[in-house]
From TrEMBL:
PANTHER family named in the record: EG:BACR7A4.14 PROTEIN-RELATED, ZGC:101858
UniProt protein name: Glucose 1-dehydrogenase 1
Top-level EC class: oxidoreductase
Family: Belongs to the short-chain dehydrogenases/reductases (SDR) family.
Keyword line: Oxidoreductase
Residue ranges of every copy of the Ketoreductase domain listed in the record: 5-181
Signal sequence coordinates: none
Organism the protein comes from: Novipirellula galeiformis
GO molecular function: glucose 1-dehydrogenase [NAD(P)+] activity
Length: 252
């Protein structure tokens, strides 16, 4: 338990981000909640205690928003120990149907966002020997049908994580990522409501079900903790065994 450490969590209004913010609060952190919808962030802040949290609304693809968020964090708490880059969007479609605007939206939030937040946070993380945990995806480890742009954005997060880990390990900053599969979140709501799609996922996930936000949050908390002090540049699948398969179908 740490009663003086500070974590920034982006996309904290729901799903994995909200679960992660709650987990860090339980572990004694002050938590900075970022997202685009103030009402959702405020609800999470109320749940974990407004005295333990700071809400900074804004889009992580904006450099001004990100710099303000980090500045507000330091002004309020005087330090920064953990950054969780969780904010993300999904727009499906094959290349003949996906617009340039849809490509930009995903690359800006999913890849540029973690770049901007990490860049702004690193001077402070160097001081505390802190860590970054990015939320990539199994879609950043291999391709999906009809999701090339999302896959590209998450692939960028995966390799950015590895390369930044090399650059900043000498300064004591660890940088890792989690790679969830289908997780029961607001972003996956349409998928979770489709029994046929859920069944198809269950057939590919060794544990036979979608993940829960709290299950991803627990791994994020581990990667940010002293228990993972010799772990950096690692992408941890939190996917119920999906990526353990070589892709061939289950027989019998």
């Amino acid at each position: 338990m740490s009663h003086d450490k500070v974590a920034v969590v982006t996309g904290a209004g729901s799903g994995i981000g909200a679960a992660t913010a709650k987990r860090f609060a339980r572990d004694g952190f002050k938590v900075v909640l970022n997202g685009r919808t103030e009402s959702k962030l405020s609800a999470v802040a109320e749940e974990i205690g407004v005295e333990n949290s700071l809400v900074v609304t804004g889009d992580v693809s904006s450099e001004a928003v990100v710099e303000n968020m980090i500045a507000q964090t330091i002004k309020t708490y005087g330090r920064l120990d953990v950054v969780v880059n969780n904010a993300g969007v999904f727009v499906g479609g094959t290349i003949d149907k996906l617009s340039a605007a849809d490509w930009d939206k995903q690359m800006n939030i999913n890849a540029k966002g973690p770049f901007l937040v990490t860049k702004a946070a690193l001077p402070h993380l160097v001081k505390t020997k802190g860590s970054v945990v990015n939320v990539s995806s199994v879609s950043g480890l291999g391709g999906d049908w009809g999701a090339f742009a999302y896959d590209a954005s998450k692939g960028a997060v995966t390799l950015m994580t590895k390369a930044l880990a090399l650059d900043f390990a000498p300064q004591g900053v660890r940088i890792n990522a989690v790679a969830p599969s289908l997780t029961d979140t607001e972003m996956a709501e349409a998928v979770m409501e489709n029994d046929e799609v859920v069944s198809a996922f269950a057939n590919r996930i060794a544990m036979g079900r979608a993940g829960k936000s709290e299950e991803v949050a627990d791994v994020i908390a581990f990667l940010a903790s002293e228990d993972a002090r010799f772990v950096t540049g690692t992408i941890v699948p939190v996917d119920g065994g999906l990526s353990a398969s070589n892709g061939q179908p289950k027989l019998g």
